[in-house]
């Protein structure tokens, strides 16, 4: 029971809500929720950086591409390109690149059974190049998942331990974003092609990480045929200028090349296509290592801290300021994570965004529930006091209810049935209750029609006030009009009584204006929206004068002055009220005479 009471404390509910938001934030972080959003944001950030902020790479990778023209230039199938590859390797021996990677499928066997000494041209090229340049040979993977063999004499001629896997490992959505040998089981069997090449270069940071797609511009390539042409022309100067001291990759870039899915287009000759030849992805991986290293992920503790900070959107009431902050938050986070990405740090923002969104929506729902509860409470509180129109205005926030208490100037109305006590003693209780209910129903409608508030029913009397919760330009005028309406409706009540054979009733109405205290007053078990003050008790005493002055309505001079003595008010002079003298006026509403 005590726990339930504590839950009604707004501070306890706020702390409990914050705890739930923090707990959800931790869960989002631990379960990597929002990974699809992380990837989408990352791809967009890479595309943005690659297009507008691509940073140059010192001593960039040079690609020699075997294109469609190369295939057309030679009659032999690619497996028998030994002479052409041998000439290319001799050209590289002259150019002296920093490292040469052959990202091509090398023969798995000898072809000398077809043509004697046919392997010698390629073996000679490998030995010649190996004497001048570090070589790395691509090792591809069969459909079965095992490495495809390369003819052992070719491996020996290239220097021995030169094979490296060119397998790239895609994320669940099929895009290659990472260089991590441990992502694919087969990679655990040997060193990667890119690792092998990077080992021969200085200033390279190796190890797993995310490929930096903002490093360098889109790749151009040197046609394979062009290199052979320079070799045939003994154009040493051109070869050295193009390849000297640089990492070089030979790979297939033709329309038949094996392709992988990239977050951004990498080929300058095909600038709108994200499915790129495998050699370009290998080159981008090596390029990333040359440019300060692969992108590393932000510290998990930092990401958790930012996720918890996003959960603080629970705090603070929903308003324009908070709504603006919620709208700006994703933009700032995207800008910040993009800035970090450009500096080699990947910040997964999906979980952070979801934590902030959950906290904001949770607070929105919480305040929505509070608003519904408040509206229901206002409906219960004011439903029997004011008209439906005024009630709707209060619930819409257009009228201040004054529930917390206020001191204001109001016009008080008291109405009483003359001699009702003696009358009710001789009548059945059911008849007395039915008469009062019928009478009060009509009187309440009359008061509400003129924007008055019913305070309470006191026996056969009724108390109301004008000017709260709805502020009126002239509450005295509204009160007089309500009194007139009450007397008109009393005729209908008496007509119904006569039909039942019951004697009609007479009422007296008193009006007074003065300063009172208004508020929601009472205990935790029972309270009411009411007014207190001398003006209230004075009005109650003033009602007795309706009998002696023979006017159905009496009011004080303050009321008469407020309405500029209009409507046929009669000056009754000074009268004794509540032990003192008070200037009062009597009134017989003109509509009563007309009707």
Shape: rod-shaped
The total strand number stands at 20
Task: Kindly name the structural category.
Answer: alpha/beta
Tell me the domain tally: 3
Proportion of residues in β-strands: 15-25%
Percent of residues in helices? 40-55%
Question: How many H/I helices?
Answer: 22
Rg, Cα atoms, Å:
47 Å
Distance between the termini: 62 Å
**Poorly predicted ranges:** 382-387
Describe the largest sheet: 8 strands, mixed
Whole-number mean pLDDT: 86
Characterize the structure shown.
The chain has 595 residues and is of the alpha/beta class. It folds into 3 domains: 15-54 and 302-382, no CATH class; 56-290, no CATH class; 387-594, Alpha-Beta Plaits (2-Layer Sandwich). It is 46% helix and 18% strand. It has 22 helices and 20 strands. Strands 13, 14, 15, 16, 17, 18, 19 and 20 form an 8-stranded mixed β-sheet that branches. It has a 6-stranded parallel β-sheet with strand order 4-3-2-8-1-7, sandwiched between helices. A two-stranded antiparallel sheet has the order 5-6. Helix 6 (120-132) links the parallel strand 2 and strand 3. Helix 5 packs across helix 9 (224-232). It starts with a helix and ends with a helix. The relative contact order is 0.09.
